Amino acid sequence: MEINLGSLRLPINAATKTFAILAKRGAGKSYTGAVLAEEFYKVGVPFVVFDPIDIWWGLRVGTDGKSSGLPVVVFGVENADIQIDRNMGKAIAQAVVKENVSCVISTFGLPKVAQRQLIAEFSEELLKINKTPRHVFIEEAHEFVPQRVFGAMSKAFSAVEALVVMGRNKGIGVTLINQRAATINKDVLTQLDTLLAFRNVAPQDRKALKEWVEAHTAEGDFEKFMASLPSLPTGEGWIWSPEFLGIFKKIKIRRRETFHPDRETLGDEFSMPVIEQTDIQRFIKEFSKTKPAVDDKTPQTQKAPAPTLHTDELRDLRNEYESKLMAKDLIIQSLQKQLAAIAGIIGGELPATPIIAAPATGKTDALIENLPSYEKTIMRAIQQHPNIPFTRAQLAVKSGKSAKSSMFDSAIAKLVKLQLIERKGGDLVYVQ
């Protein structure tokens, strides 16, 4: 199974990677995101869309604007299956994880404060309970992870930042969609695996993209890349993926298979078709009756991603291995759903899925407690996720430090020397 974007094919483990789609208005950024969502649906990976501009409901509609599109649940104010309010974030997360459905959360029409509360609570809960591959699209990403964070925005910023930084450890991939690179928080921007850049012109964005290239030590003709952006045709752009795919090239996106809404041409007479799809209608009915119960005591397992590999051959092998594992997991999920349906008919019960206990810690806290404050903060951050690989940039964000600081480099070298953390490939790991 592959992800078909047009002139570009991706392995299905792209679903748990981190992307940014950057372009000026009308250059194809949301269009490209929708094509990626269509492909995830085809391979059985559920997705979630944060949509503050109310255009992603078009996934529900065929290209003619009349027929049915994808069986995606739309939460929102307009063009919605389920009306939302600011307090529904946790309940939505629990429901979509339990039923493993795709959804659009359209916050257009809610006050900004209400939007941020809903997205913050959804993001926190999703990161807490997710167990299977899932992808989150964040439209107008600067609304949730802006370059400058003020008081009222801090909770939403922290929750969405955690999805980007830590999501891969829970099977969650993220795509940030935005007009300007410069308006997205630079620490969040450095977490990307892959950059998709379409027509863009602003000099501030040039600086932000240059910082991303430098953070990833990405090889490629940056000047040629930047010089071409102002004149790219709609739907054509560049992909730059130094670690995940090892490619830097021009691409052309295929045509959408679902409806692309245009608020200027829809008019007042348009109404979204109802999808008569059994599972989706059941979900809508059940969610509307009652919100899912909160169960904060259920333990969750974590799967550590493979360490970063640096040769073309090993990188390709890693992607093939991850993709095969994901394909196997998706088949198992489908079979479990069928078994659950059969059990419901015959009145039986399925055995519970075993939870693997976390290994006991092998490090003593005494040595860590005697560390200087700076090193101790880094250790406390990585200790929360034993056996999970972190890049330098990820660990810096997690511990609230600067990855460009010489003090951070010295602290990492010291912790490695003390055998409190280990280097594995290009990553840092706390091994219990």
Describe it for me?
- Helices cover 39% and strands 14% of the residues.
- By secondary structure, the chain is α/β, with parallel strands linked by helices.
- It folds into two domains: 2-289, P-loop containing nucleotide triphosphate hydrolases (Rossmann fold); 365-429, Arc Repressor Mutant, subunit A, CATH 1.10.10.10.
**E-strand count:** 14
Radius of gyration: 22 Å
Gross morphology: globular
Kindly report the CATH topology of the largest domain. Answer: Rossmann fold
Query: What distance separates the N and C termini?
Result: 36 Å
CATH class of the largest domain: Alpha Beta
Structurally, the number of domains stands at 2
Kindly state the mean pLDDT as a whole number?
83
CATH architectural designation of the largest domain: 3-Layer(aba) Sandwich
Uncertain stretches:
294-310, 352-363
The tally of helices reads 14
Helix content: 25-40%
Structural class estimated from helices and strands: alpha/beta
Which strand-content bin applies to the residues? 5-15%
Strand order of the largest sheet: 6-5-7-4-8-9-3-10-11-12
